[in-house]
């Protein structure tokens, strides 16, 4: 609505005090409504000026005189005389605070007349809580804020800009309210410029504002990844990216969900949507959350960072235990993933039920392994290895357990034999930890004082050995050695006895006799007044020679061996005697006994000498028996394959081989089990059969030798040349084959001439085709193959 200003001019007639006429003689009132901030101007004129004295005056809203001041005054309200009859009122910036009745006053015969101007200021419509750019979320209902105020509640209307502005009215999509425009189910099509108009019908004022509406979407995280992987080794450098979409583009925030151990500092740097770990540590492992946020909302996604740490053995200390006490060996290790621990004893394993073990996890990175000894013994002493392993690495550490124990003698009582010219050391060897102090005591009797003093001197000079050299009187008797440490003592009794050779052997019997050998059974003396028997010796000879000479064949055996004599004569009588032997020497001979060897016989059964190494080399070995004196002239060997555990007799092969002790397995099928029968043969016959089962070795794939390759090349070259010669034969009637065919034709023609030459006139002369001149001057002529002419005495020409 256009503003209308009404200006009234009042002419005031001023008279001299004695004769005064009013400029106007009636009272009038006028109303003006002006927009706040407008300018108000009003003239008050004297309508009937009959005197030089004109009486006009302006009063403000408080009926105070407004003094004339003119332009340039600081006051917002001032008056000014334009001419002698016009007195004007000026309000440069109208506001509600200065609104009210302004009066132009004149008087007549002391009667005052007014022209009253009611000037009221009003506020035009204006917008509050309204932004020119607003965002709405796709898929939701949103209110486009447009709130206006004025003298009265303005009426709001909406338009949307397109090719032509479209007025928006209430419907299923839109709803207009005093707060704004409600848009239901926001889509991308709702993006655009919306014009909000506010109308004040009382004042006729209208204002509008363009609001840019942009549809935004809530962030959606597409991917949270770790580069190169979310599983990393300690000390590596990795990054984690967060990728999200949304309108407007989201901002990113990273945070660690799980707290760092021991309150350690978070060890990453964020750059836009990425966090970077330069030197990753075990404390960095955990769950990280990426938060993508924009004006439409926020969304988050988590990723777990795993840090692999090689195991570290943090505790595995040497321990010291006391025998029969208890002790615990602890191996503690840390790592990610939590390592597995194994303990290994480097000495001999013992089946000891007093050892128990247990393990427990202290945390998700540290574990302990306990090895508890409920009753410690000396066998537990030694080195132990702790092995801690996880998916990253395996580490080991070594510790030693020492066992303290009192002295111990493996044999508390021992006999020591001595004899003349044999120095002896009486030792007090013991086991103890820590080492023990040694003391000796002699319990002998019937010795002289000098010998006793000598023994005491030697004991004092030698802590754990008493040397005896028999230079003086014998020092036989009982010696006591005592070992003592902080954990106890132990005693050892050493009985020092005089040693003698063994007594004669009484029990000897013959177990087996062959044509060339004899085997005995020897039982040693029952009572031996000296060291134990360590062997037997014998002396034997043919019975016919035994009493003729004292020089006989000797044979000695250690105790426990096969008492056997070989290389004897067949069908012969022998005499033999035996003696037992100990450290002192050989005892007395036993009585002589006689045995007779058998006559010559067939060979003894061969003895197999199979071993894995020789079999792998393809050699089957055996040896002949030493019991025969007759020479073996050959062997029979029979071998049969074994298929599916069944002996295939129909596939057996029998071979006679020269005297040898081995058979080549490489000629048999590889990796096949064979049943072997072996018989030795001499002039008297066959031995018994020696049998065996052998699996032949696996043969490696054979390669073609250089000679074979050369042969193949030669054959190929020959075939190529033959092919070329055939081509020449067919094409040009040339080549080796062609030459041979032509030659054969010529030979056939020559044969026909020979058939006609009955007297041999056409035969070749071995020396020359030219005529020979004999010694008597007569010329011999023959057939010339070149010219085909026969000349000479036999010719017809």
List keywords for this structure.
single chain; 797 residues; mainly beta; Immunoglobulin-like; eight-stranded mixed beta sheet; seven-stranded mixed beta sheet; 45% strand
In short:
By secondary structure, this protein is mainly beta.
Structure commentary:
This protein is mostly beta strands and 797 residues long. It folds into 7 domains: 95 residues, Immunoglobulin-like; 180 residues, Sandwich (Immunoglobulin-like); 90 residues, Immunoglobulins (Immunoglobulin-like, Sandwich), CATH 2.60.40; 90 residues, Immunoglobulin-like, CATH 2.60.40.10; 72 residues, Immunoglobulin-like (Sandwich), CATH 2.60.40; 89 residues, Immunoglobulins (Immunoglobulin-like, Sandwich), CATH 2.60.40; 38 residues, no CATH class. It contains 5 helices and 54 strands. The strands form 13 sheets. Strands 9, 12, 13, 16, 17, 19, 21 and 22 form an 8-stranded mixed beta sheet that branches. Strands 18, 20, 23, 24, 26, 28 and 29 form a 7-stranded mixed beta sheet that branches. It is elongated and about 205 Å long. The N terminus and C terminus are likely disordered.
> Percent of residues in helical segments?
under 10%
**Please, what is the CATH homologous superfamily of the largest domain?**
Immunoglobulins
Radius of gyration: 69 Å
Shape: elongated
Largest sheet: 8 strands, mixed
Here the CATH topology of the largest domain equals Immunoglobulin-like
Number of domains: 7
The top level CATH class name of the largest domain: Mainly Beta
N- and C-termini, Cα separation: 169 Å
CATH architecture label name of the largest domain: Sandwich
Count the E strands.
54
